[in-house]
Amino acid sequence: MRSLGRAGIAVHAVVESLSSPVVRSRYLRGAHPRPAVPSPAELTRLLLRVADELSDTTSHPALLVPLDDITALSLAECRPELTGRFLLTDQSPEQLARVADKAQLAATCRALGLPHPRTELPTSADEAASMAWALGLPVIAKWSRPWLLPTGGGLRSTAIVGSLTEVRELYRRTPQAGSRLLLQELLPAGRGLDWFFHGYVDSGGRCSTGATGRKERSWPDGAGLTAVGRWTANPVVDALARELLSALGYRGVCDLDFRLDRATGAYHLLDFNPRPGAQFRLFADRAGLDVVRAMHLDLTGRPVPTHRPAYGRRFVVENYAALSFLSSPRRRYAAARGGGEAAWFAADDLGPALAMLRSWCAHALRKGLSALRRLLRAGRPARRPAPTAPPPARSPHDRMTRR
User: What is the DSSP letter of 83?
Assistant: First the structure.
């Protein structure tokens, strides 16, 4: 919203909830609740209604920017119905599934000879345990199509599994997950090992806007989402990413995650997101050009300027960075040389940061009250049953009568 809004472009968003902090942004022109049933058909109907509303204010088609995997796949599937009303990158569902589906991504890496963690696809609970043992515990467990996971089911898209019992139990939940379970070798984490590449491949197949960054803090610590990232040159990762995009004939925005294996010196591709990553604004150069702006320029028929590196620039996700710091406060990094940007706070757009702060304070208060109640229950002495009066003494006559 800020990237395009600051450039004077009207931004509308399909959101999970109208109470979301992003709805508070001054750069958001309109918010539309997502369909109750997240199917391609329902998404198409919603977008066509939005297109009708926008036609009253502009004669130009709007650009569609998917921000999660399921939306990217749905838009590719609905492309015939949306073409002419919206601008979309040239992607087919099959091309996107080849990288978004974790099982297909592993097969793609094997076919192209790209370093990738050893991956197994079990077909039974016992086979899953056997494969996990062969890979070496602990292992990474992933669902091949995480967007199919049910809400509130307790299943995570990626988990570190440390025992064979856990592996068997996880495999038995395959019907509930809706896709196949993958087991991957766990590459050791460490400082300076996690890298990412963001890029935009234009209509002509050129990736003029692309850069590498290093993940300095994450949440959960040592894995998971980027809490602090820094724009850092890495020619090896850059070359690997560009070679993969060329081999796939990929078009559009992408976000790739790599981890260095110290034992072999190889950078392994961990994930391929066919959409902007959450930290794409890390790679905004001094002119404000990032992958989303490059996409807008290209699909509206205008040239994309040269992307000028701003090495040292940082991107901080405040809430995750705070949690990461609390879990490992001794870790230190050099100060940023190229400036930086925060995910939530911006001096020209305070609404999202204030809404997020309220949300996190309410969350912390609920957690604190819940912990206090558990503590009080644990410290409260057990209630003893009230003593009962002893039965009255019986006379010898009574005993003889009972007999």
Answer: B
Max CA separation in the chain (angstroms): 114
User: What would the mean pLDDT of 162-182 be, rounded to a whole number?
Assistant: 97
What are the C-alpha distances in Å from 17 to residues 13, 345, 361?
A: 11, 20, 19
What are the E-state strand segments in 5-51? 11-15, 28-33
Count H helices, E strands: the chain? 14, 15
Average pLDDT rounded to a whole number, residues 206-217: 96
The pTM score is: 0.88
Range with the poorest average pLDDT among 75-89, 293-307, 362-376: 362-376
Q: Which residue has the tokens 């009574």?
A: 398
CB 141 within 8 A of CB 182: yes
Q: Quick one: which of 348, 346, 350, 351 has its CA closest to 24? A: 351
Can you read off the two tokens belonging to residue 147? 């967007």
DSSP code per residue over 96-112: HHHHHSHHHHHHHHHHH
SS3 222: coil
Position 372 scores a pLDDT of 84
Which amino acid type is present at position 75?
Answer: L
Counting Cα atoms < 13 Å in the Cβ hemisphere of 188 gives 7
- Beta strands in 91-174, from DSSP E residues, in sequence order: 119-120, 139-143, 158-161
pLDDT at residue 327, rounded to an integer: 82
